[in-house]
From TrEMBL:
Domain of life the protein comes from: Bacteria
Name recorded for this polypeptide: Uncharacterized protein
Native source species: Anaerosalibacter bizertensis
Length: 69
């Protein structure tokens, strides 16, 4: 395995317009049904959160849209 140093600048050097554009795309993905919250064995924290707060699919979609804008 090689050394895979990640460059983080591309994730921290964003303008407010970059963020707005990203959130706009993200919201469109949600509305088009192209986004979901991972719920597999590697995402136990997501599963626990969803079960604890009894969040159904409709609620997940609504909340994700609300917090992405």
């Amino acid at each position: 395995m090689g050394n895979t140093k990640r460059e983080t600048k591309k994730y921290t050097d964003l303008t407010p317009d970059d963020i707005k554009a990203y959130l706009s795309k993200f919201r469109k993905f949600i509305l088009d049904g192209k986004y979901s919250i991972a719920q597999n064995e590697n995402r136990q924290e997501n599963i626990d959160f969803i079960e604890y707060y009894k969040i159904d699919t409709k609620k997940r979609k609504r909340n994700t849209i609300r917090y992405s804008v």
